[in-house]
């Protein structure tokens, strides 16, 4: 029986996207070596999203994460978006 882990990916902004992409490669290599699997679901919760729709994450964002085994979070922050806006909802 292969264990499957549901992981929510929240790359966020800037370097967070690059860091998560490389981290996923490492985690996939470990999964292959040790016979388990990841099921990834990416969320676009970022300052870029804030500029597009006026919110970092939807009102039910925390509820959307309940069924995941883990949350893999990158980084948030962007000039023009105050830290209390970019970080507050993501402090879960």
Automatic annotation (TrEMBL):
Gene3D superfamilies: Isopropylmalate Dehydrogenase
Classification via PANTHER family: D-MALATE DEHYDROGENASE [DECARBOXYLATING]
Protein name in the entry: Isopropylmalate dehydrogenase-like domain-containing protein
Cofactors required: Mn(2+); Mg(2+)
Keywords tagged on the record: Manganese, Metal-binding, NAD, Oxidoreductase
Residue span(s) of domain Isopropylmalate dehydrogenase-like: 7-80
MF annotations from Gene Ontology: metal ion binding; oxidoreductase activity
SUPFAM superfamilies, per the entry: Isocitrate/Isopropylmalate dehydrogenase-like
